[in-house]
C-alpha cells in the first residue's frame, strides 16, 4: 500500500524522495543549512522541482556548497558560472551567493555557528503546524518576516520572507507536513 504523502510532492519520484528523506527534517549542521540557503536563493521565482533537478549541477559548480570557497570567488569564477548551463545562470543570484557566503561566516563568528543564530528564531524547537492540505500553508509568517528582515540587515540578499519561510520548511524549523502524511509524526 502506498504511503500517504503531502500533495505537493506527488508529481515525480525525485520530489517524493526529497519529501520522504529531507523536507522538514531539523537541520543543525551549518554546511547543510548553507546549501539550502543557496538552493532557496536560486529557487526564488522558479519551481522547487527545477532546483532539485539541477541540485547535483549546483553542487559541482559551487564547490559542494563550501561557503569558505564561495566567499573567495573572483570574476573569473563568476564568468564560468554564468556559462554553466547546468545551473540557473542568474548574475544577481550568483553574486548574492558570494555575498551571502561572507555574511554567513560573519554570523558564524558572532554566534558560534549559523545554526545557533537561525534556530534562535524558533527557540531552538521546530514549530509543528497542523495543516490538512498543503494549499492551506502560508507563504510567510511573522517569524519568517522577522528573520528575513534580520538577514537583510546582516547583508544577505534574496532572502525575502517567502524564501525564508521555504528555507524554514526545508530545514525543519517548521513541520508543515500535512497531518495525514506519514512524515508528519516522524520529523
Topology of this protein?
Layout: H1 13-21, H2 30-43, H3 48-61, H4 67-71, H5 75-82, H6 91-111, H7 114-119, E1 127-128, H8 142-153, H9 161-170, E2 174-175
Parallel strand pairs: 1-2
Description:
With 187 residues, this protein is mainly α. It has a single domain, classed as Endonuclease III, domain 1. It contains nine helices and two strands, in the order αααααααβααβ. Strands 1-2 form a two-stranded parallel ribbon. The two termini are 21 Å apart. The relative contact order is 0.18. The model has no long low-confidence stretch (mean pLDDT 96).
Structurally, the number of domains stands at 1
Structural class by SSE content:
mainly alpha
Shape: globular
Note the total helix count.
9
Task: State the major sheet.
Answer: 2 strands, parallel
Unreliable residue runs: none
Strand arrangement within the widest β-sheet reads: 1-2
CATH secondary-structure class:
Mainly Alpha
Helical residue percent?
A: 40-55%
Give the total of beta strands. 2
Element-by-element helix/strand order: HHHHHHHEHHE
Give the structure's gist in a few sentences:
The chain is an all-alpha fold.
Kindly list the characteristics that best describe this protein.
single chain, 187 residues, mainly alpha, Endonuclease III, domain 1, two-stranded parallel sheet, globular
Amino acid at each position: 500500500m502506498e504511503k500517504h504523502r503531502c500533495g505537493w510532492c506527488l508529481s515525480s519520484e525525485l520530489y517524493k524522495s526529497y519529501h520522504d528523506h529531507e523536507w522538514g527534517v531539523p537541520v543543525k549542521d551549518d554546511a547543510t543549512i548553507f546549501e539550502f540557503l543557496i538552493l532557496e536563493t536560486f529557487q526564488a521565482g522558479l519551481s522547487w522541482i527545477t532546483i532539485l533537478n539541477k541540485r547535483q549541477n549546483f553542487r559541482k559548480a559551487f564547490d559542494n556548497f563550501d561557503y569558505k570557497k564561495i566567499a573567495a570567488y573572483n570574476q573569473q569564477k563568476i564568468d564560468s558560472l554564468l556559462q554553466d548551463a547546468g545551473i540557473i545562470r542568474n548574475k544577481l543570484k550568483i553574486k548574492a551567493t558570494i555575498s551571502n557566503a561572507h555574511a554567513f561566516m560573519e554570523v558564524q563568528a558572532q554566534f558560534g555557528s549559523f545554526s545557533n543564530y537561525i534556530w534562535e528564531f524558533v527557540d531552538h524547537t521546530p514549530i509543528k503546524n497542523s495543516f490538512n492540505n498543503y494549499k492551506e500553508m502560508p507563504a510567510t509568517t511573522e517569524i519568517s518576516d522577522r528573520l528575513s528582515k534580520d538577514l537583510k540587515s546582516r547583508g544577505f540578499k534574496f532572502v525575502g520572507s517567502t524564501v525564508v519561510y521555504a528555507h524554514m520548511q526545508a530545514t525543519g524549523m517548521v513541520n508543515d507536513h500535512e497531518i495525514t502524511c506519514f512524515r508528519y509524526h516522524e520529523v
